[in-house]
Automatic annotation (TrEMBL):
<dbReference type="InterPro" id="IPR036291">
    <property type="entry name" value="NAD(P)-bd_dom_sf"/>
</dbReference>
<dbReference type="InterPro" id="IPR002347">
    <property type="entry name" value="SDR_fam"/>
</dbReference>
<dbReference type="InterPro" id="IPR020904">
    <property type="entry name" value="Sc_DH/Rdtase_CS"/>
</dbReference>
<dbReference type="InterPro" id="IPR051122">
    <property type="entry name" value="SDR_DHRS6-like"/>
</dbReference>
<dbReference type="Pfam" id="PF13561">
    <property type="entry name" value="adh_short_C2"/>
</dbReference>
<protein>
    <submittedName>
        <fullName>Short-chain dehydrogenase</fullName>
    </submittedName>
</protein>
<comment type="similarity">
    <text>Belongs to the short-chain dehydrogenases/reductases (SDR) family.</text>
</comment>
<keyword id="KW-0560">Oxidoreductase</keyword>
């Protein structure tokens, strides 16, 4: 895999990077010439993800164990990332969890956990990264929301609410950056069904992965679920200088669901 240079000079912190979208985004960033710090609550998984990147792009990746719900850890992590890469100018808030449950069936404990992982982490990341990023612009924040943040379902109460919060928080951060943090932008990505571990929970009680994918694909106009790289390519565009006039926007990577 040859570097193509779309992100040369970018130094990116990617949360939830042990697997799925986070790992795919980190790998794609390294391919495009960026240095990356991969973080995850699963520290060993983050190490494995960084090692896989470094096996192809030597010296491009560093791993850190990271609880994205911890304010204290966010303060520490952004400074560790800055030190590891000699700067920080891209933040990808990717870490997240899903939950199936209606407003009546969802437990309050699960509601609070989803909000903490999916929303509080994005707030904390943006809050504490911007001060460290400011001297190293231009750059960008990319928040991974979901098509579930734009289109509701009866059994996604917590997930719908959390991802909708990420969507509008992104716009608020974008306007703040435009006024107070010159050279920095903030946008959100809204995937639909992507072939990642989180899909297992969203699919519900279906007998097999193949059966789940087939069922979900029937809801997508393009007729199939997405792959992690579909989102990673979008994340490259939004973090690179190619999107220098794009901020406060939502990029739907949804196979056409939102067009229905």
């Amino acid at each position: 895999m040859t570097m193509t240079g779309r992100m040369v000079g970018k130094k990116a912190l990617i949360t939830g990077g042990a697997q799925g979208l986070g790992s795919a985004i980190a790998t794609m960033y390294a391919k495009e010439g960026a240095h990356v710090v991969v973080t995850d609550l699963n520290g060993e998984g983050a190490q494995a993800s960084a090692a896989a990147i470094n096996s192809v792009y030597p010296g491009q990746a560093t791993a850190l164990q990271h609880d994205v719900c911890s304010e204290a850890q966010w303060i520490e992590i952004v400074h560790l990332a800055d030190k590891a890469m000699g700067g920080l100018n891209v933040l990808v808030n990717n870490a997240g969890i899903g939950s199936l449950g209606s407003v009546e069936s969802e437990s309050y404990d699960t509601w609070k956990k989803v909000m903490s992982v999916d929303v509080d982490s994005v707030f904390l990341g943006c809050k504490y990264a911007l001060g460290v990023m400011r001297p190293h612009g231009p750059g960008a924040i990319v928040n991974i929301s979901s098509i579930a943040g734009l289109i509701a379902a009866s059994n996604y109460a917590a997930y719908n609410a959390a991802k909708a919060a990420v969507w509008l928080l992104t716009k608020s951060v974008a306007l703040h950056c435009a006024r107070k943090v010159p050279g920095f932008r903030c946008n959100s990505i809204h995937p639909s069904f992507i072939n990642t571990p989180i899909l297992n929970g969203i699919a519900g009680a279906i007998a097999s992965q193949e059966e789940a994918h087939t069922k979900l694909a029937r809801q997508i106009p393009l007729g199939h679920i997405g792959e992690p790289d579909d989102v990673a390519y979008a994340a490259v565009y939004l973090a690179s200088d190619e999107s220098k006039f794009v901020t406060g926007a939502e990029l739907k990577v949804d196979g056409g669901i939102s067009a229905m």
